[in-house]
């Protein structure tokens, strides 16, 4: 069964061109020409990927992305932006877009990004039993399959990228990562210069999972290097997988 891709793009020529090439590559493509229709499709139908333009009639791309992630819907989102819209690209990444492509773009580049995102998503869902195991550390419980987090038995609401970042940290306790490494490992390639995105995600994560964000016990800063997930816990709260 072909993978299904939603194209939310108001320029019908671009939408039609992308649709034709996606179909030629073996995908099923569904176009939507405004933000409201695109959001309705994204929330009411099942897709493997969403290609989302920033400038749309009705709801703009950022608002569509925000509402999709708030649903929460974890379908990968490839955002299309203009070269002059750096601030929008940053906002898009911070509210849950998985990748971005600047206009004008080549069809070859678009297909490469689409394939990379779909491969990454497939690898996550087809992961080994070890990668799907629930992680418990201190009062924090992370369930990779359900993409859920609980702190002291209370549900913690995270965005898609906040969850991915926390999960990566928790799977590698004690390992120190630079901001650039985290961008590559969690966001993917092509994000040079967006290290501040990591900082803002770290700050938001701490506000949600730390009792005192100013003195974190889970996500720790390593001066001059980056961040790590604590590999020590209270004696009665040892870290383990189940």
Question: How is this structure best summarized?
Answer:
The protein is an alpha/beta fold. Helix content is 40%, strand content 21%.
Walk me through what this model shows:
- This protein is an alpha/beta fold.
- The chain folds into two domains: 4-125, Response regulator (Rossmann fold), CATH 3.40.50.2300; 135-241, Winged helix-like DNA-binding domain superfamily/Winged helix DNA-binding domain (Arc Repressor Mutant, subunit A, Orthogonal Bundle).
- The chain has eight helices and 13 strands.
- It has helices spanning 12-24, 35-44, 61-70, 86-95, 107-125, 160-171, 179-187, 195-209, and strands at residues 4-8, 28-32, 49-53, 77-82, 99-103, 135-137, 140-143, 148-151, 154-156, 176-177, 219-222, 226-229, 240-241.
- Strands 2-1-3-4-5 form a five-stranded parallel beta sheet, with helices on both faces. It has a five-stranded antiparallel beta sheet with strand order 9-8-7-6-13, covered by helices on one side.
- Strand 6 and strand 7 (140-143) form a beta hairpin.
- Helix 2 (35-44) packs parallel to helix 3 (61-70), helix 3 (61-70) packs parallel to helix 4 and helix 6 crosses helix 8.
- The longest helix is centred in the middle third of the chain and has 19 residues, at 107-125.
- The protein is elongated, with a radius of gyration of 19 Å.
- The two termini are 34 Å apart.
- Residues 235-242 have low confidence and may be disordered.
